[in-house]
Amino acid sequence: MPAFRQVGEKQLPNPILYMAWSPNRDLIALANTSGELLLHRLANFQRVWSLLPNENTGKEITSLAWRPDGKVLAFSVGDTKQVVLCDAEKAEILHLFAVEYPASCMHWMEVQDDSSTLSSFSESEDESSRFLPKLPSLPKSEEKSDEVTNLLGEVRLNILVVGGPSGFVELYAYGLYKIATLGGISGTCRSLGLSSDLKSLSVITEIRSTEDNPEIHYIQLDTGLLSSCLPELTKMARKFTHISTLLRYLRLSLTCMCEAWEDILMQMDLRLTKFVQEKNTSTQVQDEFLELLLWGHASSELQALLMNQLTVKGLKMLGQSIDSSYSSIQKLVISHLQSGSEALLYHLSEVKGMALWKQKFQPLGLDPAAIEDAIVAVGSFTLKASELLQVIDKSMKNFKAFFRWLYMTQKDLAFVADFLSEHFSNEELFDRKGKYFNVERVGQYLKDEDEDLVSPPSMEGNQWVTFVKQSTYLKDSPLLFPTYPQKSLHFVKRMMEGSIDLCLQKPAKAGMHYVVFCMPDISPSKIYILRRATDPNRSVPKGLVALNLNTPLNSSIDDETPAPASAYSSYSCLDARFYDDETLTVVLRSLEDDENKMRILTQLHLNSAVSWDEEFTWDLTLRLEQQTEGIPVQGLTWGNQSREMDNIKAQFVAVNGIRKVACVLSANLRHVRVFEMDAEEEEEEEERADESQEMSLDQDRLEDTMTYQSDAGEGRDGVGGAEEAQVAGQGSQDILDETAGSDTL
């Protein structure tokens, strides 16, 4: 068998806490102690990008998980209790959501179901493109919003499983929409895996006793409801994911509108505020401007405002700027807010239809009443956007006439009089709090405040409003959306998001799982493999075996000559990962090395190891370490697929069997070495060898000065972290698993 070929080595400035290979690309994600997320390429371990911590995401990364297609990377943040989805191409944050507890582990899987039911369902799943126009792209400052709308990817369902302390486990379809919150689990989740057929969820938890001694528990939960309702679950998840991305689209649109308003339109209000504060007369602002309009006479304060602060040239430029800002806001309302809210109404209406189809969707917990409330809230938001359009249209006409005052025509005179009468009628418009003079009417709709509008639009003379008020049947009809005339667009938007959040929360109600673990205090030279069927109703014979690591290094299946006694050595496992369904990649430490430096990276082939004849009988009244003598023990053949780790105190490993690569991390968490696992070792140049030797010797001296427990790694996925038991493993099809009745390891 070919040996492993080293393709990269690097010293890193900050200790690495977590490593995760991309499922189908030569990329590895690293999270360090400073909260930085790094992405490196296999070739020369070249850095692709880094994402620095910030106040929005947080600084304490606690776990990593790749989406199965390798396009999105999820990482959890402990200090802010959030899960963040990041674009693997651009290092941009696509989506984030809060969780109740800091996530200690995550697992992102794709549903593998080729049944004709799902295939035919997928073809007709989303018809929205036939009825809805494509949403226009947002301005370049919010370019990433286009990526958000593509988060769904392929039709096939994928689920992000998040676990944390206090038995916290939640499932998110497409990493966005929560479809389940699980209870009845004790302890802190250390690793978990959802089977690809959705029939069971396996969880490994750590429970601390009163003496602070850790116990490792393995639990298998029946998730057959998700499997039996897969087509309905996929349709519902995609609908709610559409809704979530549309809400973000509307938020970004509103942000663009606020930016367009704040740049220019505040200037007029600020100058008039200063004028009101400095004028010494008791006359109202309306009287000041009307006197100038009718008699051509202005007070000294008004002259100073017009001649020194505004000026003719300044008024023309300000008028053009305000007209441009209003036009930008108007376009955003028409093309983005209205289009987005119409799409939102479409998808919510379809979800309501699903909720009323109780035969298929009732098991998923859809609530028609909550969905109806969300539809009404979206309708109110749409009406408020239409109201804003009317205010913009009227303000544009009045402002144009007001700024053309010095060169106006007789036709404009009526507009100016109306403008002065409406906007300068009383000093109460000098804001309720006395903060500013409010002559510009659009900005009040864009302020993110709970207070009522300072100048709500007048509904007098509106024939529809009058008709509704006079109608006994229409006045309180549920068919009409409420308008909230006293509230801002931001307020109605927040109310809509709250209703939709309630709607989203309502539904939160054949392969094998493999678990690899060690018991260093009981049997330091053994690795244990536990296997369970993904279907909790199916029993698996020969479900537990121990692998003996006291094996000659160069033994092979075909070897007929026994190895000499000197070739035998005792090893303990530091870390282990499933390379593929039949191979386990492990980092071993020699128990006979007095200096505790010898490390070996090896591939263990499990075909012969798992074909044992003996059966282990569980006694649920005893802890597992009390039953080790009855566990069948199998020997291993390493062949020549092993490599001694020279000049690095290897402690952890991350692997990708599809890309045939592995990354080894040292005990001090700063030194990494990358290998191609199925490539022949090439002769290295002398210069490269000398440089590597010098760097490794420096690293070795650094490691010798640090105190680091060889069994460190508490809180990491993989082997390590418990005194009485250590758990490792990325299951061959998934990862860990089992027991409806919670077995204690």
TrEMBL record:
Residues 19-110 form the Anaphase-promoting complex subunit 4-like WD40 domain. One of its GO terms (cellular component) is nuclear periphery. InterPro entries: APC4, Apc4-like_WD40_dom, APC4_C, APC4_long_dom, APC4_metazoa, WD40/YVTN_repeat-like_dom_sf. Pathway: Protein modification; protein ubiquitination. GO terms for biological process: anaphase-promoting complex-dependent catabolic process; cell division; protein K11-linked ubiquitination; regulation of mitotic metaphase/anaphase transition. Residues 509-676 form the Anaphase-promoting complex subunit 4 C-terminal half WD40 domain. Residues 722-731 have a biased composition (Low complexity). It holds the Pfam family ANAPC4. It comes from the Eukaryota. It is found in: Nucleus. Residues 678-693 have a biased composition (Acidic residues). Keywords: Cell cycle, Cell division, Isopeptide bond, Mitosis, Nucleus, Phosphoprotein, Ubl conjugation, Ubl conjugation pathway. The keyword Flavoprotein does not apply. Residues 678-745 are annotated as: Disordered. Residues 217-413 form the Anaphase-promoting complex subunit 4 long domain. Coiled coil: none annotated. Its main location: nucleus. Belongs to the APC4 family. Component of the anaphase promoting complex/cyclosome (APC/C), a cell cycle-regulated E3 ubiquitin ligase that controls progression through mitosis and the G1 phase of the cell cycle. The APC/C complex acts by mediating ubiquitination and subsequent degradation of target proteins: it mainly mediates the formation of 'Lys-11'-linked polyubiquitin chains and, to a lower extent, the formation of 'Lys-48'- and 'Lys-63'-linked polyubiquitin chains. The APC/C complex catalyzes assembly of branched 'Lys-11'-/'Lys-48'-linked branched ubiquitin chains on target proteins. This is Anaphase-promoting complex subunit 4. The gene is LOC109112904.
